[in-house]
Specification:
Length: 334
């Protein structure tokens, strides 16, 4: 029997999510479009992930289990490198595709050879797999998805960098287009999705938007740790420092402002953690390029106080901050 190369490759990188992974996998198996392969990339999960995956006998599933933990970005890349389809999508193990996602996205790419990737709006779901109508509407408005119409995305650089309207998990790419930008950069670990979309825009790729909610993005309980925050902020700083929008002065001004804002937040997190010298160095660096925000000045003062007092102060700041729709969904599910 001749070997059949699937048209679409779907990658679900996973780690320690044995209980929730089936929801993501079943959302792929329930697609109305069937010419795909599903690559489940397991980053040496110590839980029951291997046992859970063994329940599926569908020949379209390829299970890639790494013998040792290779970290998030490398795990994502392993699925991309093993993919055989001409179209590719990666989404997280706690999210899901709606049944017609592939059917509608593939139709766009098939009919429009000049389009590099197609993306859609998405639902917000909670820990119980329930769609949150109010949070979904608030999310679409926050990121400007509700103002995008069907068709080619105008000014992709502004949409990806300024508004961050698009999302990798609800985007189907031509694999050939991903090859031109090298997919996920390991140095961007933690904000790979943002970085990929911005680099696609910088490369002048063409995106097509479907204003339908064809994917489900999960908000669930639990907050990120301080170490995770610092890791993310450091990665985002790497990305912002590396971009240059010299041909778009208005975007370059935004980039520089965001670099400074990000470094102020990173400095605060470092001071909270106890990496005092590194935090103070960032604040001094910011002082040299412009006026410090009130928040940065407070962080600088706190850096001279005992570590325990700092932690209490930062915790108090967080409790005073107004909760947005995402935190309300997470807290309700926690």
């Amino acid at each position: 029997m001749p070997f059949h190369s699937p048209n679409v490759s779907i990658c679900i990188p996973t780690y320690n999510r044995a209980d929730i992974l089936p929801y993501a996998v079943n959302s792929v198996l329930n697609q109305t479009y069937s010419d795909f392969e599903l690559l489940i990339c397991d980053d040496a999960s110590p839980d029951r992930t291997a046992e859970v995956v063994s329940q599926w006998s569908d020949q379209r599933i390829r299970y890639i289990r790494h013998p040792q933990n290779i970290k998030r970005s490398r795990n994502m890349r392993s699925g991309y490198e093993a993919a055989r389809g001409q179209y590719f999508i990666k989404f997280d193990d706690d999210d899901a595709l709606t049944p017609t996602f592939l059917e509608k996205a593939v139709a766009v790419l098939d009919a429009n050879p000049s389009v590099d990737f197609v993306c859609s709006d998405h639902w917000v779901i909670n820990a119980n797999n329930q769609r949150e109508e109010a949070a979904t509407a608030a999310n679409s408005a926050k990121w400007g998805k509700d103002r995008l119409s069907v068709g080619i995305v105008e000014d992709l650089l502004a949409e990806t960098f300024v508004h961050q309207s698009l999302q990798v998990g609800s985007s189907l790419f031509r694999r050939s287009s991903l090859e031109t930008v090298d997919f996920m950069r390991l140095e961007a670990d933690g904000c790979e999705d943002f970085d990929l979309l911005v680099r696609c825009a910088i490369a002048r790729q063409t995106a097509y938007f479907i204003p339908e909610r064809l994917m489900e993005y999960r908000f669930h309980g639990g907050q990120t740790s301080l170490n995770q925050d610092i890791h993310f902020l450091s990665a985002k700083s790497f990305c912002l420092d590396g971009y240059c929008f010299s041909q778009r002065p208005e975007l370059e001004k935004i980039r520089q402002a965001r670099v400074n804002e990000l470094k102020q937040v990173l400095a605060m997190r470092l001071i909270e953690k106890g990496e005092t010298q590194r935090g103070r160095s960032l604040i001094s660096e910011l002082k040299d390029v412009g006026k410090l925000s009130t928040r940065a000045k407070v962080g600088q003062v706190l850096s001279y106080m005992p570590h325990r007092i700092r932690q209490i102060a930062f915790q108090g700041f967080r409790q005073m901050r107004a909760k947005d729709y995402s935190e309300k969904v997470r807290n309700a599910a926690g």
